[in-house]
Here is the input.
Amino acid sequence: MSEALEEVLEEFTRYVNNDIPLHLISLPEIRLVGRSAVEQHFRPRMDGITSDMVDQERIKVRIEQDFTYPVHSDRRSAVRALVEEKVQYAILSHRWLKEGEPSGKDLHKQQNLSGRGYDKLQSFCEVAASKEMKFAWSDTCCIDKSSSAELDESIRSMFRWYRNSALCIVHLAQSASAGDMTRDEWFARGWTLQELIAPKKMKFYNKDWEPLTKFDNDKVDGGGGSILSVISNHTGIKIRNLLHFDPGPFFLIERMAWAAKRKTTRDEDIAYSLTGIFNVGLQIAYGEGGQRAFVRLIEALMQVTSDTDILHWAGKAAELPHSHALPPSPAAYVVRSIGGSRPRDRFAMTSSGLRIKLAVFPSRLESTDEETGIATLACDIAGRHKVTLKVKVLERDALKMHPDDGYDWLIGVFNYIDSPAGPKIAPTSGCYLMMSSSLSTEWIKLPTEEVIIFPASEASDMVFDEKYLRTVYL
Here is the structure.
């Protein structure tokens, strides 16, 4: 056995046992099989991968927006790509029926194989087989939901399974043509977000299983009139992300906005469906509630990124016993981006709440309107710059708390810049409205309807004294 083949077989075994679904449907007989059957079927194809093919794969590049990118970072990546090209399966993206979807148990026992749910599965399998696929996957019958361990692994792996598919077949059950496709509920659901951006190749079908375009792959940039352009305009996802999405804990505000208006049947799935997009691990715990699940997602992100954009959100905080400074859902991030910074050790979650180092500046409460909730504040930025802010406070009782009663109103800037000359104001600063009391050592972050963006045109790049930096727990 050649050294190249040994390398290929090692990667093939690893890939099949880790990066494809646990169960697949064997075609055309529509029979449920495990990974071993897939491995046995594709093993002979590995013999055709030569060392020359690996070398040719390594020099591939991708041109995007006039920039040239290497497709592979190393030899193993090239070998993996060749293995992945041989190990092919189709994957279904759809909306579940309220009842009647066939389960894995139904396929094993060959029972309940009729009705709308089975008709959909059968149509999917027929389309997949017509594309010369020997295996297919559907979340209705290829996950043993009676096994909590398998359900947990499947949810954690879902993005990767869609990414590794040779073809994602999308069934739009409410659409007749490309003209009405964006009105389909498929575009409003939480899980279908990753099913849209993860696959490399997609094909859309209408309610009668007729293709919406004449192309083999609908994930191609065909210009302003293409189906991809329509999807981009409707979802707000740029075409380059639809074509070449890179999962990871970055572009937080942009990616949260994609999910902001989407709905899930289970509240917790709002968070779980984003783990693959941000490439973070999260234990599945149905019953914890949507807010708690989303907060755990934010905590997981804080462990892997120092991007201050994660702090840039608006509205009321999640209801937690240990903190009142974390967002309850992706909708909190529908805000104007200010361009985050990535300082070291600026923030972290602790058992005492969000520990964060802020540039804290005193503010004088000039007036309040309890009917509208608007507070007018005069802010003193390091004794060198005056700013007047009008802020809509969502907790109206806070408007009754005045300095005469021992309450101080403060502005806490979270994205100031660390520089050799000292901390300085960013070109556009993101702020928290805070309050402290002479009766307590606690600091309170007040919820505001919109994010507070510090108009720092005159103070931009202004270096200020480190005495204004405070580490607080919120």
In short: The radius of gyration is 26 Å. The longest helix spans residues 148-164. The chain has 14 helices and 17 strands. Residues 354 and 474 are 5 Å apart (CA to CA).
